[in-house]
From TrEMBL:
A GO cellular component entry from the record: cytoplasm
Enzyme class (EC, first level): oxidoreductase
Species whose genome carries this gene: Halanaerobium hydrogeniformans
Gene: ldh
PANTHER family for the chain: L-2-HYDROXYCARBOXYLATE DEHYDROGENASE (NAD(P)(+)), L-LACTATE DEHYDROGENASE
Activity regulation, free text: Allosterically activated by fructose 1,6-bisphosphate (FBP).
Protein name listed in UniProt: L-lactate dehydrogenase
Function: Catalyzes the conversion of lactate to pyruvate.
TM helices/strands, residue ranges: none
Keywords tagged on the record: Allosteric enzyme, Cytoplasm, NAD, Oxidoreductase, Phosphoprotein
Subunit structure: Homotetramer.
GO BP annotations, alphabetical order: glycolytic process; lactate metabolic process
Residues the entry annotates as binding beta-D-fructose 1,6-bisphosphate: 157, 172
List of catalytic residues: 179 (proton acceptor)
Length: 317
């Protein structure tokens, strides 16, 4: 780590629902000792920082304040949540042009003051914006991470935990590929406490027909649309996902998380960012894992990559 970087300092760019809730999640879990909140609306950032700091006596010591880009010069981790929000009826990919233009301003503002941090992109469409951030920042690929399908994988585990009647942390499974409509559920490796799902279901007396499992995967994919339709936006779970990734980085955990990162020949996929189980630590991306996917899953992953690639070609980057 560079001498001017503070190991436990985090900058969050964007003080909207996701950004403010991410700072709250970081604060509540004791992740980071210094957090600067940056937003184009300075009053909003200051108000959120004040509100959060008023609860500082209930958590581990932390300094939370509103600032500007100069204040992120010594941050170890920079989390970007700023951007246009997904509206009812919009897909994540519909946001491409809006948020690409926003990031063309944000990333140079970051690199003007900090070339040594790790970037964590949360804004959608996260895979495309992760790739764009790598291109614009000139950071090493291992230090540009997208929140990817960390949230989707959690949704997957949550729905399976209800279906199987076990705690979510005993469900092990991954959603890979795009964080969006082409995401892939890795059923072949999904297990309950080490027991493959196809073997576990008879034990728990569940009648797991293929169409039931497919419905779970569809519900995972469509969860955000349903939540946006009902309450306008999603921010609690994605903020917890961002905090989980931040914890892996600041505590040097070598945690396996389905973050989005630059593909370098995995399953024959190159020159775009998407999600696979990845070892994450204080240096960023340590290793992307090559899973023994079923043939159909690998085929679907490549389809997901092709869809993202076609959208990337439409951008001037």
């Amino acid at each position: 780590m560079q001498k001017n970087i503070k190991a436990n300092k985090i900058a969050v760019i964007g003080a909207g629902n996701v950004g403010a809730t991410t700072v709250y999640a970081l604060m509540a879990q004791g992740i980071g000792s210094e957090i600067v909140l940056i937003d184009i609306n300075q009053d909003k950032a200051e108000g959120e920082a004040m509100d959060l700091m008023h609860g500082s006596s209930f958590v581990k010591p932390v300094d939370i304040y509103a600032g500007d880009y100069e204040d992120l010069s010594d941050a170890h981790l920079i989390i970007i949540t700023a951007g246009a929000a997904q509206k009812t009826g919009e897909t994540r990919l519909d946001l491409i042009k809006k948020n690409t233009e926003i990031f063309k301003n944000i990333i140079p503002s970051i690199t003007e003051y900090n070339q040594d941090a790790i970037l964590l992109i949360v804004t959608n469409p996260v895979d495309i914006l992760t790739y764009l951030s790598w291109k614009l920042s000139d950071y090493p690929a291992k230090r540009v991470i997208g929140s990817g399908t960390v949230l989707d994988s959690s949704r997957f585990k949550s729905l399976l935990s209800k279906h199987c009647g076990v705690a979510a942390n005993n469900v092990h499974g991954y959603i890979i590929g795009e964080h969006g409509d082409s995401e892939v559920a890795v059923w072949s490796l999904t297990n309950i406490a080490g027991t493959k799902l196809k073997n576990y279901c008879p034990i728990c007396d569940k009648n797991c027909h293929t169409n039931e499992l497919e419905k779970i995967a569809e519900n995972v994919k469509n969860s955000a649309y349903e939540i946006i339709d009902k309450k306008g936006s999603t921010f609690y779970a994605v903020s917890l996902a961002a905090a989980r990734i931040a914890r892996a980085i600041l505590r040097d955990e070598n945690a396996v998380l389905t973050v989005s990162s630059l593909m370098k020949g995995y399953y024959g996929i190159n020159d775009l960012s998407l999600s696979l189980p990845t070892v994450v630590n204080s240096t960023g991306i340590e290793k992307v894992l090559d899973l023994p996917l079923a043939e159909s899953e690998e085929k679907d992953l490549k389809k997901s990559a092709a869809q993202l690639k076609s959208n990337l070609k439409k951008l001037d980057i």
